[in-house]
Amino acid sequence: MQIFAYVTLVTNADYVLGATALARSLLATGTTADLVVMHTGGVDDSHLESLKALGAKLHRADLLPTSDAFNARHQRAKIHAENPFTKGRKPDFHTPLDNFAKLRLWQLEQYDRVVFIDADAIVVRNIDRLFFYPEFSAAPNVYETLADFHRLNSGVFVATPSRETFDAMLARLDAPDAHWPRTDQTFLQSYFPDWHGLPVFFNMLQYVWFTMPELWDWKSVHVVHYQYEKPWERDHPKAAQLQPLIDLWRSCLDGAMPDVDSLENPSVAR
User: Distance between CA 222 and CA 26 in Å, rounded?
Assistant: First the structure.
């Protein structure tokens, strides 16, 4: 019998809040897979009690033992200055270097297959079928134009834990002068150049709501990913445009998942 798990990563108290909404949304889908919350030293143990109460298995995931030179190249100020986010705003609590800690999921060899989901996402219908997709499966990074289909988004992906894979990743990650402008996302696409494309509906980026409303169909959407601004931020710059999705996230946080099939698509609302 194969053993499966959904895995997420929290690096501070903000992402604990996000992971709580994610956990409640997963429970609402009726999944029987484990939920593993990897957490770094940036999270106080007391902040994790709410996740533990939901049945999540807590797993300490320290930041990777990368070199000082690597860390300097991937500091927030430097990486954002060299590769600015021109389409949206990353919140102040976002720390690019922390993103690489998600690679530690390949150390979870007690599981045959895992599905990683960023803590700023919610699952609105059962996605257990993803455990039977190959490594490495991910949805495209589509949120503005169809030209984005050639890039993956690492907010949702399917992986097979393996210490051997993890060690090989670490060696390539911190090679001399290695630079990953979009951190783990750039690295994973480089490491898995023949990645298997999931339907975009398994990682629907929130900006699609107003950039390509015709692509959004609630009867197909499985995962909503709140890239850039987060739904728990007060009065963020895109709040008015994204209010229906913010309301959905808050419902998940409260444990009151609505019937998404009955929700109005943005193309109709306009």
Answer: 11
Picking from 130, 111, 122, 181, the residue whose alpha carbon sits closest to that of residue 155 is: 122
Q: What is the pLDDT of residue 235?
A: 85
Under CATH, what is the fold of the domain 4-269?
Spore Coat Polysaccharide Biosynthesis Protein SpsA; Chain A (3.90.550)
On the question of pLDDT at 86 being above 90, the answer is no
Cα–Cα dist 266/231, whole Å: 18
Asked if residue 143 has pLDDT above 80, the reply is yes
Per DSSP bridges, beta strands 4-10 and 34-39 are parallel
pTM of the model: 0.93
Q: Is 239 helix (H, G, I), strand (E, B) or coil?
A: coil
pLDDT exceeds 80 at position 25: yes
Residue 266 to residue 216: CA distance in whole angstroms: 7
Of 239, 228, 246, 205, nearest to 91 (Cα)? 228
Please give the mean pLDDT across all residues of the chain.
92
Phi first, then psi, for residue 85 (nearest 5°) are -85, 105
Residue pair 177/154 in contact (Cβ under 8 Å)? The answer is: no
Tokens found for residue 17:
């809040």
Helix, coil or strand: residue 12: coil
